Amino acid sequence: MTIKQIIKGLLPARVLAFKNKLDDLERLAPLADRCCPVCGYVGHFDIWFGPDIIRDNTCPRCDSHPRLRLFWLWFAGAREKMVEPILHFAPERALRERLSAIYQDYRTADLSHDAHLKLNIEAIDLPSESVETVICNHVLEHVDDTKAMRELHRILRPGGRLICSVPLIEGWSTTYENDAVASDAERALHFGQSDHVRFYGQDFRERLRRAGFTGIDEITAHGPEVVKYSLLRGEKFFLCAK
Fold it and tell me: Backbone dihedral region of 90: left (phi > 0), alpha (psi from -120 to 50 degrees) or beta?
């Protein structure tokens, strides 16, 4: 028996539990100051308490998450690629506030949250070829994506662009879906959240192409920017032309 084991045997259970909690908190302490390209904040980022607990995740000033910071790093040098009118599904607060201040013809869409338009992404109640740019981050994993992608393609004007991101496992050649997974608990176990219905694999690109999208470009988090802005290594979003 080691000295550590002997000491543990002598300590009351409550003291051990408290020590373990302190150890957990230490493992979640910020690693370093980070920069938020969205609002300019520099300092420690907050912990994200979700299905997984992630440190250095959220900007305490504007509430941006890694994928939003990745988007903004691209957007800062490519504003001309976002043409109005713009439709933003499930708008994130950090992006909504800033994009609405930049663009006159910028509208948000959702079924359950405060938005300009109440729209079902699987059957979008808008005319065909009526939008130039659609932003759709982490929405397609919640819905029938075959219907949703076709609808997004339909409402875009020729030459329009879909900007989207999804939970993506590049090590998988195909997307994981399972019709037998029906309950909230099962979906959380299989897909990471109770309201998710799939984890995408490399074939996400082919799904976009089947819906009619072409010229699919990818923006990926890598290199020193990952450290400076606290991005998720390898995370990406897609620029899909009609």
Answer: left
